[in-house]
Design goal:
Two copies of one chain form a homodimer. By secondary structure, chain A is of the alpha/beta class. Chain A is built from 14 helices and eleven strands. The radius of gyration of chain A is 19 Å and the shape is globular.
């Protein structure tokens, strides 16, 4: 396998983008990545998107987006793993460059979620759960994560304030991210008093519904050098699944697919958790960030909430988590999220994160953890400055 | 890149499978492939599916199918390129084995299309076209291929009888395929007199709506030898896209993405069209098979219809096409089709095609061409007996 580096990143301002079409949003982020990389062509493009069919009535995204990007006849694929579709696109792009079949590959993600009416977005998202054994019976994602939160509180004593600490931190970080959907700060009191969605999760525990895209360019380390770019190497990639239905897992206070994906990524990278300087993780709900930081090994089981409360995951903490603002503040266009995590990891490793959220001690190794459904799939990537 | 071989194939009886669930259909084909290969584990699984969301309200297929296949924590991806999703799954599995990141990978395809009511299937399929510039204005696939047929007839003098010859041949071949949805023969008169769908295309020019799955196992040639399997090598893989909307192409009597994908596959395989002994091609409509055989180079532009009429694409012709019965008779569960083509190519190369449709002169090199939408994406693969 060849060594692979990320040489370009692109993202656009996320939000309720009524004035832009599905293809416009994609092309904007894709062109930004191409410009940043300075490449004169692509050999292939891999697009993460959860449900073009249900959100905008459009499948066949490879063809559509290659066409609108002006890349006639480009080999272009779409991949899907629910909310981990972006991370999956990055993994397949990594494998494609590593294999030698393609030299310059774009990994991109897109979702336009606000064009559906009524409960269309909730229905579309629920297709990431088990349709026959969960969704049919009324389960939706706030409800599933509420079950996990309740179990975690019962088993470990995780508190309301610990959940709120995650939201407060991520909105603080996101307030410095010019691309975030909700770049405002929130207080603990505001989170605690926000409207209940599925007990114990309140609206400020939940990531939003978002339109947005993100793109990155991967190539060989040799080509990256010729481009004169900082060499941000992809040193580890791990991918794992778990039972799609929550009730089929032996323990819902941990995320086994995340643990297994991380083990695979660590093995490939020849690193351990203590080598990781910071991470972007999948905080679709505040409880998710707490359980993910435990499942990755940053903190022991049951200690993730306390760590968040103590500031250990803040910008100046021991393990900064979600310096971008995370899904919580930056937004969560589900297919784009995994790629946007890579965008943030690259910014931090380049030392170019905007508006004061750049980590003070320049990091060398960063991680991205992207998750589908209630944890039924996970992608973990480790990047390092060469 | 490592040399890659197909060591296992699996398919189930296609049709309107009311009595089987989405996951049942998948697992049936997947287990058949695992049994055929004799492997004791998988490193990864890649699933082609066009629209789990619109057809059965289920995305996140990697997690779902790994779970129901009993492959806990398996790395499992879903890929989509409309009706070329199966071919795309095969390509990504090929790249994954070639890269060295995984040794044993399943490429599988699935679609359950008959569970939607009303015009749900037509709507779901239409999302493979351009939603904003085609579908919104009422275009569906029979209409789009009817435009291509009309243009081809006008430019080259292609006739009704030439279209019918494709249907008669494919149903004849399919009558010998125990897995086909419609394993009956049809006469030229029956095709000519069948109900009009979109002039000049009649119902017997169209492939059906189908539930079904197919799976194949790819591994390295070294492992294939250890398994004691016939070595069916993947020697060429080509992938290309084109404008998703038909009206944006300079010439709708040819399929440029097919030509470009074939050129890429020929280059990798170091072969030319005359080296190909037979092919499975994407006959979603009879006119598609005619144009595809021209675009691949089997026949000059405008001569595909005449070749079909003369029997050159029959079992004993110069270039046997769709020995399986093609999409026309075998059925077209869109995500599974590209993988089922590989199943047939492997059967022919092994000399095990059922019920008398095995080619008399044992073939050494076969091709599969799988296409999305009105030709907006194409995958071409070339396989050879080592």
């Amino acid at each position: 396998m060849r060594d692979v580096a990320v040489v370009g990143i692109g993202i656009n301002k996320w939000g309720e983008l009524w004035e832009k079409s599905f293809r416009d949003i994609y092309v904007e982020a894709a062109l930004a990545a191409i410009n940043d990389a300075g490449v004169d062509h692509l050999d292939s493009m891999i697009i993460g998107c959860m449900s073009g069919g249900l959100f905008v009535g459009q499948e066949h995204l490879g063809s559509l987006m290659a066409d609108y990007l002006g890349q006639k006849h480009l080999a272009a694929s779409r991949v899907e793993s629910a909310c981990a579709s972006g991370g999956l696109a990055f993994r397949h792009a990594f494998i494609e460059v590593a294999s030698g079949i393609s030299d310059i590959v774009m990994a991109a993600g897109i979702e336009k979620m606000t064009d559906v009416s009524g409960d269309g977005a909730t229905y579309a998202l629920a297709t990431a759960a088990d349709q026959e054994y969960e969704v049919f019976h009324g389960a939706t994602f706030p409800g599933l994560y509420a079950l996990m939160a309740t179990a975690h509180m019962h088993k470990y004593g995780t508190t309301r304030d610990m959940l709120s600490a995650v939201a407060v931190k991520n909105h603080f970080n996101g307030s410095m991210n010019p691309f975030a959907q909700y770049p405002f700060k929130v207080t603990k009191e505001e989170v605690n008093d926000s409207v209940m969605v599925a007990s114990p999760l309140r609206i400020l525990d939940c990531s939003p519904i978002t339109d947005g895209a993100a793109a990155v360019i991967l190539t060989t380390v040799d080509i990256a050098r010729k481009l004169g770019k900082p060499i941000i190497k992809v040193i580890g990639s791990g991918h794992a699944t778990d039972s799609i239905a929550l009730h089929q897992r032996p323990d819902i206070t941990t995320l086994k697919a995340t643990t297994v994906a991380a083990e695979k990524a660590f093995k490939m990278a020849n690193k351990k958790i203590a080598d990781i300087n910071f991470a972007e993780v999948h905080d679709c709900f505040t409880i998710a960030e707490i359980i993910v930081t435990e499942s990755l090994g940053f903190f022991p089981a049951g200690k993730g909430g306390e760590a968040a409360l103590k500031g250990e995951t803040g910008l100046e903490g021991k393990f900064p988590i979600n310096t971008s603002g995370g899904l919580k503040s930056k937004g969560h266009p589900v297919g784009a999220t995994g790629v946007a995590q890579i965008v943030e990891v690259v910014k931090q490793l380049r030392g170019t994160a905007e508006n004061g959220r750049q980590l003070k001690k320049q990091p060398k190794v960063g991680m991205a953890q992207n998750m589908g459904g209630s944890g039924g799939s996970t992608l973990v990537h480790i990047l390092e400055v060469a």
